[in-house]
Specification:
7-stranded mixed β-sheet; Quinone Oxidoreductase, Chain A, domain 1; binds NADP nicotinamide-adenine-dinucleotide phosphate; alpha/beta
Amino acid sequence: MKQVQFAAFGLPSQVGRCVEVVDVGETAANEIVFEILAFPINPADLSFMTGRYASQPPLPATPGAESIGRVVKVGSGVSDLKPGDRIISLLRENWTQRRRIPADQAIKVRADIALAQAAMLRINPPTALLLLEDIVDLQPGDWIVQNGANSAVGKILIGLARERGIRTVNVVRRRELVAPLKALGGDAVVVDDGTDLAGRVRTAANGEPVRLAIDCVGGQATRKLVDAVCDGGTVCVYGGLAGEDSAAPTHALVFRGVTVTGFMLGRFLMKRNRAQITAIYDLLAQRIADGRINVPVEKIYPIEDIAQALKHSEDYGRDGKILVAPNGPL
Ligand SMILES: NC(=O)c1ccc[n+]([C@@H]2O[C@H](COP(=O)([O-])OP(=O)(O)OC[C@H]3O[C@@H](n4cnc5c(N)ncnc54)[C@H](OP(=O)(O)O)[C@@H]3O)[C@@H](O)[C@H]2O)c1
């Protein structure tokens, strides 16, 4: 079967390649085999391949934090899944044609949602949801600010916040994104053009307190969000797209009581039991079915073209995600 591997850390489009490997083997009683129908290329996959992710795997390694799969085989002890079921895997190494995993690491996904959206269900939708639910006790009417607002997480967060009556100031780096993000339900969209971002965020929030800032950029962007939140406010860093450590001014932490904290989906899912995790994915799949979560896709590649797919995903300023369909067109 075909699988994506990289044998050295580096620029993903240069180190990622499609190789032939032995198939996954027989299922043990508690295992399933699924074929991967589609997977997205996420920023975390790119940093995994460059060696900048939380942990560095032994090489060669297979990336892939998420996918949508179809069960092809179940072990004798598996009763809640059957061949044909669609699943997302809670494990990594999804950039491959088939995968064998313990059944309790799979979550069944309803079959009536678009495969491309289902392929992007595992990571970004719950990230947006838990950033809204777990960091600050937000109430309807509260203002929050997020940067990287044109990201998949950012767009999903706009919709989930609006459902809850939470108002969003959305920071982007391209002026042409203002109208689309407003159309999506963003209450305000601010372009980070290098001039007094914090002041413009506060103005966009009508001078009302901005209680939470959600930061996927890091570096100096964190400092700007620290300046934008109210006294006692919280900045939650969940990504490092700038490639630099978050900067936070001491005076804001000491005299204004601003808290800077961090989020990683796995850590926050671990606080929940299996039933709660399943309920989260059921709710988010329902949002996909309703059309309320609909992340744009720019292009879908075959697995053999992984180098081109990676090259495409390295270019920001895109209109949507890059997906790969390892077992033929969707
Ligand atoms: N901590 C967690 O558990 C967790 C979970 C999911 C995602 N994340 C993080 O969330 C972030 C977004 O992920 P995604 O999959 O939603 O992203 P995505 O859809 O691939 O979009 C990436 C976005 O980042 C923007 N961007 C890239 N570099 C930037 C920079 N230096 N400064 C400002 N903006 C920049 C791009 O802006 P343009 O549109 O202008 O190109 C684009 O909108 C990533 O950092 C990812 O690692 C973290």
